[in-house]
Amino acid sequence: MKKTLFLLILVGCISTSYAQQTTVQSKESKEPKKENNSSSNLIFNPDQSVVTNHTTTIKGQKVPYKATTGTMPVWDEEGKVIAGLFYTYYERSDVKNRAARPLVISFNGGPGSASVWMHIAYTGPALLNIDDEGYPLQPYGIKENPYSILDVADIVFVNPVNTGYSRMTNKETPKSTFFGVNADVKYLADWISGFVTRTERWASPKYLIGESYGTTRVSGLALELQNSEWMYLNGVILVSPTTLGITRGVAADAALKLPYFAATAWYHKMLPADLQSKDLTAMLPEVEDFTMNELLPALSKGGFLEEGKRKEIATKIARYSGLSEKAVQQNNLDVPFNYFWKELLREQGFTIGRLDSRYKGIDSKDAGDRPDFNAELTSWLHSFTPAINIYLRNNLNYKTDFKYNMFGPVHPWDRSNDQTGENLRQAMAQNPYLHVMVQAGYYDGACDYFNSKYNLWQMDPSGKLKDRMSWKGYESGHMMYLRKQDLETANEDIREFIKQSLPKDGQAAKY
Hints:
The protein is of the alpha/beta class. Helix content is about 35%, strand content about 15%. It is built from 15 helices and 16 strands. The strands form four sheets. Strands 3, 4, 5, 6, 9, 10, 11, 12, 15 and 16 form a ten-stranded mixed beta sheet that branches. Helix 3 crosses helix 4 (about 215-230) and helix 8 (about 280-300) packs antiparallel against helix 9 (about 305-320). About 50% of the residues are buried.
């Protein structure tokens, strides 16, 4: 069950061809220090780095770059080090005007997930070894990422406390300092400000990108950076976003999942012939229209919905979901996600994945109302875990005996007072430069694509900010970039977003 708590996640980065490698160590040796006794206890160094130099090819162009891998402290209000955050920072090394060079600050989610997923599978200069649909291949390892955004922006991948190689340094520091919606935002904003100062990037246009719970994080950070660090952004990219604290209500919670059910059923060829014959994006508008204009009002009536109308709605839900009308009726028109993942392919002997419904699993028995395991997550861990450990140690020359936490101990996590969607709206209202782009996979059942559209509709009731908001959909799941075709398209969408959100010369930030 604990695995399920971690599934809102994902983000990472990697690098490739090497012209030369130069090791630079700050303060202490890169090898973990050990005490001079028989116990050989590991000593965590919260402030150290190693630099390597590389060259890669992006969109047919040679791109030289420097990778800085290391830790940088988190300080408390008295200047005491309470943690060290592990990061990897990529800078294109042939850039003359760093002030005009965009900086992208990247987070994954969880909460409790390392910044590994987008690092070595999406925006960074290297890719893990997988097939074109995202499934594991051996031998494990990495290759060049010809679609990385490093040609147009520098990138830093940040690992919050207890993820990756990030650790607390003071046992007396309450865990509540780090592990909660608002605590997470507060200390990370301070760390980002320190990082930008150290790397002399205050003049650069700045962007945040977060995936899954990372979208909650960066939405909160957009306002916290403005209010507490006086740092203003040009853009926020939300990859597979959460609900961002935006209240749905019982009827909306039940209704909004149907378009995702329809996309998944289409992929597995479980829809009626007239729907199945259409392209996915040509079929979905019909389902979305039914969801908002018929299903949502019907579910709002609950048990007082007229029997004839109930039958009509159940028939349409069955048509769009690939389930039987009987199953829909037995669930009172509100089919749970877990039941859907178990039921859709039950007769074929398979379950389907939560984060990516293209993946199939096999349970111990076909009976039951939920899958035994998450087929997609175990597949991803299969390929990502060896790759990130190989890459950091062998390619980026970061040597340590600490364990790389793909998922770290961060619970209990305080989810109270989540106002991150409203925080992002406020940040946009206060900063005319700030733009937002959402990227979502149609087959993502954890942070489904239609709920991400609903976020944008509800975030700004006035509609005055919608011209600075955009939405992009991809025919894959939570980590849409694992599919090669979407990797190329999604990175190109980020390039275009950066281009469009950079102000023209002389364009002031005003309404």
